[in-house]
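ok new one. same drill as before - structure tokens go in, u give me an amino acid for every spot. 434 of them this time. try not to just spam alanines like last time pls lmao
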């Protein structure tokens, strides 16, 4: 029996299978939030007189028992039950009788699933924030530990200028600051209550939406009932953009690590237990973890486009396509958290080669230093550039630069500004406080 099914109607098994799809699988991830939203709704119904105080208390107590079953892993969506919302209501009615049938007053499954998803995504963004913060802290720790260890810098994949492991690792820490700005923006949109909007047109019941907003600890409401429904799909897409931003940072760092541990570079290494081998080449130490992070993060970066294609050209109001956002977005959240954890594991084992730039093949990295040295002696930059360029054109034996570096400005290899980057991250993290 479906919540919407009448006594005289039946549904084709083929239609039911197609329309339910993978909903039960992903609805299990929403179960605790469905109960949480229902407790807030029932509490409000009891306060506004739409349920008696005794009925509301009985329903809340029953819902709390269901929540305990969910936490204990003793909850499932039974065969023949359409979704998590139906399962919770059926279980509650079984527990407490007629009062369980009253809990849907003043709401639709449209606003019920909308609030479930908002609660789920809000919690997921806070979990992601914790993972990003740990990676950020590790990157800055590694940056400080290797601030004196020089590294070739590249543009166009050609030798460019001296860099350092401190600068390289710190750059990814600061990248996560901007990614966190995206997470904070998605969190702000997610942290709005759609409950009470019904099917998108409100209700004639005297609901107290401000009360459920307070009970569910949302910062504010989606005020307009029609927009509360229109926020479905849009909220998921904004969250996916935040995921994509983090994924892009991980992807680029993974690519750097694959490149830098290549024998032709030989800048970094990892313990044997963090790499894999070859079935026929005994010398191989493959960067499989970085390659999989790179691939998974490329896939995560496609999620905003997939959600866009799913929801584009839809008019206002609810449409069944919204059901599919769960199977696109929820696995991406899980994958990204796993990728961040694995990145931390790999970076904990990072081994840095020292004195890389002492190798003669890297001496052209110091050409800009040679130009700047002449400029400091009073020669114009253009003439200094030409003089050093001519020496280099004559061959390597004519160019013998000093390898002394004097980088002092903010954000350079001699002044990483890691503390300032840390302050910037805390400023963004503060936006996620309730």
């Amino acid at each position: 029996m479906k919540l919407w099914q009448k006594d005289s109607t039946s549904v084709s098994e083929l239609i039911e299978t197609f329309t339910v799809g993978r909903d039960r699988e992903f609805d299990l991830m929403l179960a605790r939030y469905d109960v949480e939203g229902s407790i807030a709704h029932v509490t409000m119904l009891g306060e506004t007189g739409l349920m008696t105080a005794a009925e509301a208390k009985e329903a809340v107590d029953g819902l709390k028992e269901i929540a305990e079953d969910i936490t204990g892993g003793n909850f499932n969506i039974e065969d023949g039950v359409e979704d998590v919302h139906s399962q919770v209501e059926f279980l509650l009615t079984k527990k407490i009788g007629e009062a369980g049938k009253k809990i849907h007053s003043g709401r639709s499954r449209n606003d019920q699933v909308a609030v479930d998803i908002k609660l789920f995504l809000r919690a997921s963004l806070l979990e992601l924030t914790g993972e990003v913060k740990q990676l950020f802290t590790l990157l800055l720790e590694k940056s400080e530990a290797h601030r004196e260890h020089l590294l070739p810098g590249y543009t166009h994949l050609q030798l460019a200028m001296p860099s350092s492991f401190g600068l390289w690792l710190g750059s990814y820490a600061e990248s996560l600051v901007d990614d966190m700005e995206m997470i904070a923006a998605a969190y702000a949109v997610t942290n709005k209550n759609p409950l009470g909007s019904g099917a998108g047109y409100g209700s004639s019941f005297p609901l107290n939406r401000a009360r459920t907003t307070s009970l569910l600890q949302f910062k504010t409401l989606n005020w307009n009932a029609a927009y509360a429904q229109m926020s479905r799909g849009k909220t998921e897409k904004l969250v996916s953009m935040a995921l994509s931003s983090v994924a892009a940072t991980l992807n680029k760092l993974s690519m750097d690590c694959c490149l830098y541990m290549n024998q032709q570079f030989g800048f970094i290494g990892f313990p044997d237990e963090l790499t894999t081998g070859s079935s026929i080449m005994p010398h191989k130490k493959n960067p499989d973890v970085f390659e999989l992070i790179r691939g998974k993060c490329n896939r995560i970066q496609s999620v905003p486009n997939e959600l866009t294609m799913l929801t584009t050209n839809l008019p206002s109001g609810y449409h069944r396509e919204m059901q599919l956002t769960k199977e696109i977005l929820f696995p991406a959240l899980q994958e990204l958290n796993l990728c961040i954890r694995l990145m931390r594991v790999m970076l904990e084992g990072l081994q840095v080669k020292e004195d890389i730039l002492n190798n003669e093949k890297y001496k052209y990295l110091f050409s800009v230093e040679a130009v700047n040295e002449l400029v400091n002696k009073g020669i114009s930059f253009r003439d200094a550039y030409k003089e050093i360029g001519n020496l280099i054109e004559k061959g390597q034996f004519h160019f013998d630069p000093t390898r002394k570096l004097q980088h002092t400005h903010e954000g350079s290899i001699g002044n990483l500004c890691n503390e300032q980057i840390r302050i910037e991250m805390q400023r963004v993290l503060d936006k996620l406080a309730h």
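The chain has 15 helices and six strands. and btw The mean pLDDT is 93.
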